[in-house]
Amino acid sequence: MSSIAFTAAPFTAAPFAAAPATERAATRSASARPASARPRLRITPRGRLVLGVLLSVGLALVLLLSGLIQPVLGEQPASAGDVVSSAGYDYISVEAGESLWDLAAWIAPDADRREVVAQLVALNQLTTTQVQPGQLLAIPTAFAG
């Protein structure tokens, strides 16, 4: 087993001059705080700025997620039953090998195909211009009939 031995070492004074012991004791007792008191929290100006930015970002996220800020931005949340659409659309089924470009030529032969394709994409909420065989696409009312 090991053992630890403590030896008393003489106390050496710091290399700088200090106040006499009686002055130090008087100063220490005057500035001593009660054991239960906690020091005040000090926040620097930079800390206040960081804290303010963090709180503002947090508040903005909470408002955005809760939906309170959507009316301010002009976006209205969708709700069922508010407005009933009376628009009726004709639908076309995509055949094997057909593209939106081919459908645009068949739907509106005299119109600019780029505009017809853009309207088909917007009306059917397509993310790309690729279509699958058997997919039903709504035809814009301007070209139906």
Descriptive terms for the model:
6% strand; mainly alpha; 145 residues; 39% helix
Instruction: Give the terminus-to-terminus CA distance.
Output: 101 Å
The coarse overall form would be elongated
Topology pattern, helix = H, strand = E: HHHEHHE
Given helix and strand content, the structural type is: mainly alpha
Q: Quick check: average pLDDT?
A: 76
Q: Which radius of gyration do the C-alpha atoms yield?
A: 39 Å
CATH superfamily of the domain at 90-139: LysM domain
Number of helices: 5
Explain this structure.
- By secondary structure, the protein is mainly alpha-helical.
- It has a domain at about 90-140: Membrane-bound Lytic Murein Transglycosylase D, Chain A, CATH 3.10.350.
- It has helices at about 20-30, 45-65, 70-75, 100-105, 115-125; strands at about 90-95, 135-140.
- α4 (about 100-105) packs across α5.
Set down the secondary structure blueprint:
Blueprint: H1 21-31, H2 45-66, H3 70-73, E1 90-93, H4 100-107, H5 113-123, E2 136-139
Antiparallel strand pairs: 1-2
Helix pairs in contact: 4-5
Outline:
By secondary structure, this protein is mainly alpha-helical. 39% of the residues lie in helices and 6% in strands.
